[in-house]
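Q: Predict the assembly, please.
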Amino acid sequence: MELPVLNETPAASAGGCSSHSCGSSDDQLGHLSDEIRAKVENHPCYSEDAHHYFARMHVAVAPACNIQCHYCNRKYDCSNESRPGVVSELLTPEQAVKKTMAVAANIPQMTVLGIAGPGDPLANPERTFETFRRLSQDAPDIKLCVSTNGLALPESVEELSKHNIDHVTITINCVDPEIGAQIYPWIFWENKRIKGVKGAKILIEQQQKGLEMLTARGILVKVNSVMIPGVNDKHLAEVSKIVKAKGAFLHNVMPLIAEAEHGTFYGVMGQRGPTQDELMDLQDACSGDMNMMRHCRQCRADAVGLLGEDRGDEFTMDKIEAMEIDYQSAMEKRKVIHEAIAEEMHSKRAAKAEKAASHADEPKLNTRPVLMAIATSGQGVINQHFGHAKEFLIYEASPDGVRFMSHRKTDLYCSGDDTCGDGESVLQRTIRALEGCEVVLCSKIGYEPWDMLEQAGIQPNGEHAMEPIEDAVMAVYKEMAAAGKLDESNAEQRATA
Amino acid sequence: MALQIIESCVNCYACEPLCPSKAIFMSSKAGHFRINPNKCTECEGDYQDTQCASICPIEGAILDANGIAVNPPGSLTGIPPERMAEVMAELQAH
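A: Predicted assembly structure:
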């Protein structure tokens, strides 16, 4: 018996509606028009499918900010940190263009250049737009994106629409100024610092106005929200509803990152981030109203590479200065590679759709869902050694099929465990990150981690190396079902164990 | 009458374009932005509030003519200074 894969709805599904995908928002792009799908299908940040194949980069040209968020500390800069707002090297627009072209020539699957900080890109309009202007001229095959807190968005829409920018991300954490005042201590507005509810109200109005102006012009808008337990967690479902009504095409709920050593308000005051379960529950609650995004990696403002990896060290300014880039020939090479990837993605999608259709009439299993963790370095297959995985993709298998849930980093904030260590080994930390999963699928795994995983109640499995992720997850799920491991009574046993 | 930017400046550039007197410059010697005291007017006649001190995100980085922080500890982040001291001491003890 074969079960369908939920995440992937074929592009040509407009005519029919299979019982498995209808009403499901698990395919985050499934509800989009063909036109929008075509725009985002090679964008790793917007398409869960694309993020296995295509890479992105951020250039840190925008240091200034016009607001303060309680999860940000403008003093912080650490090369071991991986989270938004952190960079190691500020670039001039000229340097940023050079870096972008160097990366594009060396990592041909890089399709997207974003400006995301470390401050707010639209609070640095000259530096941001100079970078966009030059890139749309010199490297027309690169998609340009920008993310913003929204305060200066309405005044920037005109300029944004002039460039090759068809995606904008707005971080919207609330639509209620009272909640906003607990997230944003101040904004800088019309030559004054405005604190508290008054400032938050202006920010919210500007964000909503900017969102409406962008969608009216046909510019795609993704909304990011930081989930802050006890502050806006109950409120975000409403935010999701409102931004969708105003035309945002994707909502990305991200967990708060707050540690005392970051020196942020939330970190120092002991505000906790959400658990994996709380985050998934909220994403599920919002998904009734909105296409949810679950594969966001909360990248640094100078990240380079596939999501989840950072090759920024290969492209520091001193290394780039030494590179000779012939962009014309690089562009030709890139075109060939992009077409090959698109073809591979399309054929995989078509194969999945065909498989799902051919098994549509089979009886449904009556078993409980299972979370599985996957070690992969891309291409949508299980191809990474357990010990090399810096993150795991989490999939849920259930009688309804397989769906991507989230990713979990094993080194969430810091890779310098000698300096920041609290005595917990990398392996222990990894196992803790996999809490709630019952299976780990990887290409290979050593004896020691095998034993430790088993002790933690997680079954390691290296038998599906190089297989497509969804196929392998479903195969393992069916093995578990056949072995009687998935009866509800077993689930109760697990819960009380 | 002039404000002063001191070494805790993080070079975020936010203040520089706002200055009505073009008094703010990047000092390569100091390694951070500074204010030319001969040009600074404390925004008198231009704005009600001093612009650099109204956008600066770093507490204590801008001093007034008396050498007192325009944005004292806790005023921008909302973190009570004693809480910050406590947490920092705890982190250092590890």
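Residues 4-93 of chain B form a domain with the Alpha-Beta Plaits fold (CATH 3.30.70.20). Residues 5 and 62 of chain B are 5 Å apart (CA to CA).
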